[in-house]
Amino acid sequence: MSDTSFIPRVFSGIQPSGGLTLGNYLGAIKRFVSMQDEDYETVYCMVDLHAITVWQDPKALMHNTRELAAGFIASGISPEKSILINQSQVPEHAQLGWIFNCVARMGWMQRMTQFKDKAGKNAQNASLGLFGYPALMAADILVYHATHVPVGEDQKQHLELTRDIATKFNHDFGVDFFPITEPVIEGAATRVMSLRDGSKKMSKSDPSDASRINMTDDADTIAKKIRKAKTDPDALPSEAKGLEDRPEARNLVNIYATLADISVDQVLAEHGGAQFGTFKPALADLAVAKLSPISAEMARLMDDVSEIDKVLARGAEQAREITAPILKKTYEIVGMVGS
Ligand code: TYM
Predict the structure, then answer these.
(1) How many other C-beta atoms are found inside a 10 Å radius of the C-beta of residue 241?
(2) Which atom of ligand 1 lies closest to the CA of 193?
(3) pTM of the entire structure?
């Protein structure tokens, strides 16, 4: 099937299930910002319905949703250029999600590694929503006929499932209705690792706060976390190949490259031969210079959340202009009587 009939449109989302991390920023938001200046319509979403697949305190969820919106805006997502929404205000996501629950197969869901990781040993006690989560994620994307989805590496399997759902729907109903979405997983920071363990991804749910940089951390905290980051005793190599078996060193170099908007080779051309005692302060200075203006702007926006709520209300209106006709047509294809 060719995608040429679909408008180039980007959709991506982040869960408001805790603070934003440097992983979210470098792996996702920074890319969202650059894509809004390319030839795409862009829609970015706080996926609150996804967040409640595990328990969320209601007050904290509201706070985290607004703070995430502040993070998007402070990082450079412009409500003039992009549609910014929280998922629950655009009901077509959940409505198409139900249709996709009836398209996706149990066996497909059982293969999802993220469900296995999150449900852990106690899968019988996980919510049904956590199991069905990827079908709602497919609906998030396809209810916009989105063609491109920028994400970090950990979402790749969910995007493959999105393609499977679109393909099966199109095949079952004999239509060419849903696009086969392209994942956009690019750059040196598609998998930012924990600062304490180079084999684990940096995550907002890691029990150790020292494992991650939060976008709300102050300058001293950022510098301290980088200074304490786990490393090996060797100096930095002068070529990328020399990072192959050094996950912690590679992680810090990848973070540097992405923050500075330069390649890994350029970082090593400048810092190759340096010890971590020299490189870490340089990285800390860079991180503080790039992140402090964002956290300051987030704090300013959070002082008066009515501005944020206005942006989200307008975003929901704009979004529904796209999603309502796509859902209506989906219902017709499936055979629902409408008036
Ligand atoms: P979430 O909220 O876990 O993460 C949001 C985005 O941040 C990326 N990310 C990372 N990238 C690099 N290194 C890391 N350590 C790191 N940690 C997180 C994620 O890959 C993601 O791009 N299921 C999604 C949310 C979602 C969604 C969607 C995404 C729901 N519907 C539709 C795209 C399209 C999630 O849980 O992301």
Answers:
(1) 8
(2) 15
(3) 0.96
Q: Is 225 a catalytic residue?
A: no
Tens-place pLDDT, residues 156-209: 999 999 999 999 999 999 999 999 999 999 999 999 999 999 999 999 999 999
CA distance to 26, 84, 312, 314, per residue, from 89 (Å): 27, 11, 8, 10
State the fold for domain 209-300: Tyrosyl-Transfer RNA Synthetase (1.10.240)
Q: Which two tokens stand for residue 21?
A: 């991390």
Assess whether the C-beta atom of 190 lies below 6 angstroms from ligand 1: yes
Distance CA 317, CA 320 (A): 5
- Domain extents for the chain? 3-189+304-334, 209-300
**283 touches 248 (CB < 8 A):** no
Could you read off the pLDDT of 64-80 as tens digits, one per residue?
Answer: 999 999 999 999 999 99
Centre of ligand 1 to C-alpha 339, Å, is 38
Tell me which residue has tokens 């060193």: 249
Burial of 222-239, coded b for 16+ CB within 10 Å and e otherwise, reads bbebbeebbbeeebbbee
Q: First-to-last CA distance in the chain?
A: 32
Q: What is the pLDDT of residues 320-339, one digit of tens each?
A: 999 999 999 999 999 999 98
Domain 3-189+304-334 homologous superfamily, CATH: HUPs (3.40.50.620)
